[in-house]
Design goal:
Blueprint: H1 5-10, E1 18-21, E2 25-29, E3 37-43, H2 59-75, E4 82-85, E5 101-105
Antiparallel strand pairs: 1-2, 2-3, 3-5, 4-5
The protein binds guanosine-5'-monophosphate (5GP) and zinc ion.
Guanosine-5'-monophosphate binds near residues 14, 31, 87, 93 and 94.
Amino acid sequence: MDNCIFCKIINREIPSDIVYEDDKIIAFKDVNPVAPVHVLIIPKEHIASAMDITEENAPVVAHIFNTAKKIAEIMGIEKSGFRIVNNCGENAGQTVFHMHFHLIGGKTLLWP
Ligand code: 5GP
Ligand code: ZN
């Protein structure tokens, strides 16, 4: 989608540190990491937020979660553990409206 920063990352119009890619999704390091490992996993299809998941596009969400464990292995945090976070909408602090899942780890994480 024009004007979407993450679509531009997918199209290589903006550089990023890609750690995993296949035909449906791409994962790259967050430019402003909150932990030693902070990767964003996104669908290649532009879906604005979790509120825009439909019966038709929902399989990519399953694919993201099924691939998150592989990305955790790539990043070396599969044994130490990690968190997967999606911010949806204003109160959650979503800033980029191309749905993304934060894969965060590499240290003990506080909750909430
Ligand atoms: P949100 O707050 O929407 O859940 O998260 C957006 C995330 O995207 C933030 O953690 C922010 O650091 C990251 N981000 C924003 N712009 C860029 C960019 O151009 N490149 C990368 N790698 N990350 C970005
Ligand atoms: Zn997009």
